[in-house]
């Protein structure tokens, strides 16, 4: 597959990275017009218990993760990223507004599964596309920029939802339906605005003998069987453990309600979180370019443990909002750095598979993490569940320090 790095100046992001960021921004506008209200819709309108809230998000992420592994492998073998990326974004754009028709909790589960199916298909090929469109010295910034645009969409989405719901007085289901517009706009930008380079896919010259070695399938087996380094496997193990502590953000929304915020306050708090994440993503990821991925991740995971414990102590809106600001810092430190670490360690020709495994490790832990969190909250309180997660996250941070060590003389 060709590349689209084009580093015309030091630290400059490629057009592909920028446009993929725009696609993510529009997609998250569509998603976050809905997501902040979904837990309340489930527990209030549809009468679902908290463990079902955990089941909805956990099962959806698990399905997405299974597909991320497969889609990453497909994109490596086909040496094309764009078809899978377009397909994934399109499924989500069509499925998400169907939540407007949900009449029972299982309807929400079905729609979320379809939505996450699209995410599962697109994520690993998209991340591999970003990796090949950046240089090692700008990779943290590239992933940080993409996460910043993603979170900028999550900042705008709740504001749009709030304007429709409270400002115009539209019913909640109509707000869900309106999410179709930015989702479809993202697909249009992706199809029209991005062209995947394919210089190494077709024959390099017209004479008959030349095409035989150039597009020959003989390099493919070498790419497929190239082993992943042990360092990557150790990182995936600790990521899996950490994710067992990192349950669905749906529970933070329920905690906001428990702390005294109404629906409008929850939307504003969620919006503020997304805006802060967007502000922190790029500088946090650029920090990993300077001092190393591992050091930044240790800081971010430790902050997560402290934040989750602090959530358990928040009883009123003011302290809850302060903890939410710190929670945004965790995202800024980790979202880009984790992906950049995977891209740094994985073989270049197998980055699709590597990102599939990375997202798979996160998603396969998401179902037990969210379901168990919800079960603990049902059996005791939300605060107890937050404290248990804080302990698990701290253990994962310690294991990251012990197990994920770069080779002597190398920096990670």
**Mean pLDDT across all amino acids:** 83
What fold name goes in the CATH topology slot?
Growth Hormone, Chain: A
**Which structural class fits the helix and strand makeup?**
mainly alpha
Shape: globular
Q: Hey, roughly how much beta strand do the residues contain? A: under 5%
The major β-sheet equals: none
- Count of folded domains: 1
Q: List the helices and strands in order.
A: HHHHHHHHHHHHHHHH
Low-confidence stretches: 1-9, 199-212, 218-224
Number of continuous helical runs: 16
The assigned CATH architecture is: Up-down Bundle
Outline the structure in words.
This protein is mostly helical. The protein has one domain (16-196, 226-403): MFS general substrate transporter like domains (Growth Hormone, Chain: A), CATH 1.20.1250. It is 75% helix and 0% strand. It has helices at residues 15-32, 38-45, 50-78, 82-95, 105-132, 139-167, 172-178, 180-193, 219-225, 230-245, 250-258, 263-291, 293-313, 317-345, 351-379, 382-403.
Give a topology summary.
Blueprint: H1 15-32, H2 38-45, H3 50-78, H4 82-95, H5 105-132, H6 139-167, H7 172-178, H8 180-193, H9 219-225, H10 230-245, H11 250-258, H12 263-291, H13 293-313, H14 317-345, H15 351-379, H16 382-403
């Amino acid at each position: 597959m060709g590349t689209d790095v084009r580093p015309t100046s030091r630290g400059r992001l490629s057009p592909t990275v920028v446009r993929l960021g725009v696609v993510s921004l529009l997609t998250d506008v569509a998603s976050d017009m809905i997501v902040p209200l979904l837990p309340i819709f489930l527990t209030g309108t549809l009468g679902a218990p908290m463990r079902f809230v955990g089941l909805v998000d956990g099962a959806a992420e698990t399905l997405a993760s299974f597909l991320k592994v497969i889609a990453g492998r497909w994109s490596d073998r086909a040496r094309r990223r764009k078809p899978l990326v377009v397909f994934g974004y399109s499924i989500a754009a069509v499925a998400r507004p169907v939540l407007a028709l949900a009449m029972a909790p299982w309807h929400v589960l079905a729609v979320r599964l379809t939505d996450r199916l699209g995410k599962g298909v697109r994520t690993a090929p998209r991340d591999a596309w970003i990796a090949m469109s950046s240089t090692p010295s700008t990779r943290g910034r590239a992933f940080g920029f993409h996460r910043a645009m993603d979170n900028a969409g999550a900042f705008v989405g709740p504001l749009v939802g709030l304007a429709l719901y409270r400002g115009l007085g539209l019913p909640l289901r109509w707000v869900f339906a309106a999410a179709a517009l930015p989702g479809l706009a993202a697909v249009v930008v992706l199809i029209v605005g991005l062209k995947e380079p394919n210089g190494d896919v077709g024959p390099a010259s017209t004479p008959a003998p030349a095409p035989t070695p150039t597009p020959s399938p003989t390099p493919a087996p070498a790419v497929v069987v190239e082993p992943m380094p042990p360092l990557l496997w150790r990182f995936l193990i600790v990521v899996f453990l950490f994710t067992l502590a990192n349950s669905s953000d749906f529970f933070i929304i329920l905690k906001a309600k428990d702390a005294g915020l109404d629906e409008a306050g929850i939307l504003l708090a969620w919006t503020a979180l997304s805006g802060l994440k967007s502000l922190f993503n790029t500088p946090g990821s650029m920090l990993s370019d300077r001092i190393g991925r591992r050091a930044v991740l240790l800081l971010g995971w430790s902050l997560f443990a402290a934040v989750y414990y602090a959530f358990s102590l928040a009883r009123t809106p003011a302290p809850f909002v302060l903890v939410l600001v710190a929670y945004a810092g965790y995202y800024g430190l980790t979202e880009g750095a984790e992906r950049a670490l995977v891209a740094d360690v994985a073989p270049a020709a197998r980055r699709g598979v590597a990102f599939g495994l990375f997202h798979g490790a996160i998603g396969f832990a998401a179902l037990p993490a969210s379901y168990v969190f919800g079960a603990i909250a049902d059996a005791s309180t939300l605060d107890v569940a937050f404290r248990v997660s804080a302990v698990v996250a701290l253990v994962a941070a310690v294991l990251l320090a012990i197990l994920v060590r770069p080779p002597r003389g190398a920096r990670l």
